[in-house]
Amino acid sequence: MRRRSALLAVPALMLTAAGCGKDTKKSDSAASNSPSPSDSPSASPSATPSATPSTKIVSGPVPAVTGGTAFGSKPTVAKGTGTPSTDLAVKTLIPGKGAAIASGDIVQVNYLGQVWSTAKVFDTNFGKAPYAFQTGTQAVIPGFEQAVIGAKQNSRVIAAIPPALGYGTTGNAQAGIKGTDTLVFVVDVLNVYTGKDSAKGTVVPQTDANLPKVGTNTDGKAPSLTVPKTKAPTKLVSNYVLEGDGKAVKASDTLVVQYKGVLWDTGKEFDSSYSRNQVTQFPLSSVIPGWTQGLTGKKVGSRVMLVTPPALAYKDQANGPVPANATLVFSVDIIAVL
Fold first, then answer.
1. Whole-structure pTM value
2. pLDDT tier at 337 (50, 70, 90 boundaries)?
3. Hey, which end of the chain has fewer CB within 10 Å, N or C?
């Protein structure tokens, strides 16, 4: 069962205008039974059109960046001149390297947003913590997401977003955005995490015949996970399969992971990020206790095998494909801390 923790601050580019309250309702879906994101903001009908218009992307016009032109520097952007396009205008200012961002990828960015007609900055996170979101989840306004799709890590893009791909005719009063405003964003793409990412640590021998064995492949594909025909442990097991060299995870961190979960009794898979070809992000404080306890202190870049007894999972309640009183076995690749 996932928990929602309140969002203390919501960037203006996000679709929701208010934080999420705690959600204690049960779900019958497999996704809600797994340790998956619990803070994904929901779209506000008053903030965006009910259906995203089909998008034609053009190269301009976009305003000039007059200061802070280097990647990572807070930009200064001129006021827009003339009539902005009714299509999404996107221009790459600094090309990056690597794979192009695709739907489902987790992207970490710095951004600055202002109004075309006034150059009034309504939101920025330059000088603050990077902002991360998963494309394809309606986490941000449509024009912002579509502007970064196809961009590469370490690239900078500028986009002029028409109202239909921003906040629609309602605008966003909290941010001072009218329903007729074209929005201008400068976005630096800091990191991109994809379904092909994998742990890359040093192999740690798995010598206990009474514990599951996890594959050590690092090609982004799901590792094998074999459960022995023995009695399940009654206490949490958290062992390295691959030991990375990154910093130790804190219980307060938000992680990017690849994972696979099977039932101890049958070895049957009940959930996997690999099956969706997407990495997953979540606050470690908002998942089942076995994950919170078992991953705290482990190093970024590692693959960890978890055996989670019922008391640290779903206890005596069935959750979708997970029966009551089930011991769960996971392989977890800790890709990054956001």
1. 0.81
2. very high
3. N
